[in-house]
Structures are given as C-alpha cells and as structure tokens.
Design goal:
single chain, 194 residues, alpha/beta, Hypothetical Protein, Haloacid Dehalogenase-like Hydrolase, Chain: A, domain 2, Rossmann fold, six-stranded mixed β-sheet, three-stranded parallel β-sheet, 9 strands, 40% helix, 21% strand
C-alpha cells in the first residue's frame, strides 16, 4: 500500500528555539517529532511508555544536535513533547500559553507532559481533511480520552469518551463508554452500530 501525505505543518524555528530555551531554563527534556523521526536525549519512564505504545524506537542524541541537524536539513518538528516534573510542568505551562499560544496548540497530556503542535493541527482538522464532498462533521463519531480530543468530540456528530477519560472530556461528550482497557470503542460500536 502506498502511503500519501495529505498535509504537513511544522513548528517554525523561531518558536522551536523559544521552546528549547524555556525547556532548558526549567530543566525539562524534549521529545522532537518530524515525520517518522523521533529524537530524545535519554531514556526515561515516559520514553519507554512511548516506545511501548507506538512500537517505535527513538534516536538518542542531544537536543541541540537534533535542532542543528534539522536546521541544516531545513526541517522542523511537527510536534514537541515536554517531559518534566509536575512542578516544572506547572511552572512552564502558563509561560508557553502566553508566549506561544497564538501559534501553537499547548496542552497537558498529564501532570508531567506538555504537548505542542501548530495551531492548525488537531484531530478535528485531520477529520475535516478526510471528509468527502457528501460528508459533514455531523456524520462523524469520534472517540477520545484526553484534552487534545475535546475539540474533536465537541464538533463531531457524536463524541464518545472512554471510561478512563479525563473528567473534562467526559463532561463534553455525548456518550461515555467502557475504558479503553475494556475495549470501550469496540463496545460502543457493537452496541450502537452493528
């Protein structure tokens, strides 16, 4: 099967340099993503979880070296993951929102993780790209569990939160199904579509 890239939007280098400086100041490690490249400085519990979830191995190298390499290759990240402690994440989160929130999606994945992506990139924007002329968001059933799913769930015809979703996600969902570890998506489909 030939894979076709539909769209590609990255974080510009000025914003990336600002992210890097802020992360260094707060002693937060970065995970940098560009297409299939994933670069981190060192392994950690978070990195191991990501390896387990994605079945992808990162390149381990200094963030400054990655940024220099990418600059020379004229590429920049599609996504940045900030991996800190709860206190360092609490401290940097409002700064990121204030300084970069106009251009970037800034959201907490959990107490120690912050994810950044271009403002125009979201799960909802991806769905919109895939719609055909005869389809609308009203035809879409979406499933989610985290902050980056809220917009998608709100604008889909039916937004379904899994049982282990954050409370804020459950609050805006049309339906709540079983936890993801209990096959909540499959359960909903079986109960409502088959």
């Amino acid at each position: 099967m030939v894979k076709k890239e539909i769209a590609s939007t990255t974080i510009n280098f000025d914003a990336m340099n600002e992210i890097y400086k802020l992360a260094e100041r707060h002693k937060i490690k970065l995970g940098l993503y560009h297409n299939r490249e994933w670069c981190v400085e060192e392994t950690s519990e978070r990195v191991q979880k990501e390896i387990n979830y994605t079945k992808t191995e990162p390149t381990f190298r200094d963030t400054e070296d990655t940024l220099a390499d990418w600059y020379n290759r004229n590429i920049s990240p599609h996504k940045v993951m900030l991996m800190g402690t709860k206190s360092s994440s609490d401290a940097i989160f409002p700064i990121l929102q204030n300084q970069l929130g106009q251009a970037l999606q800034v959201y907490r994945s959990n107490d120690t993780l912050i994810e950044l992506a271009p403002k125009s990139v979201s799960k909802l924007s991806a769905i919109k790209l895939l719609l055909t002329l005869n389809e609308s968001l009203a035809d879409i059933i979406s499933f989610g569990d985290n902050y980056n799913d809220i917009e998608m769930l709100q604008y889909s015809g039916i937004g379904v939160a899994v049982g282990n979703a954050r409370e804020e996600v459950k609050a805006i969902a049309n339906h709540i199904t079983l936890k993801n570890t209990e096959d909540g998506v499959a359960h909903y489909i079986k109960q409502h579509l088959i």
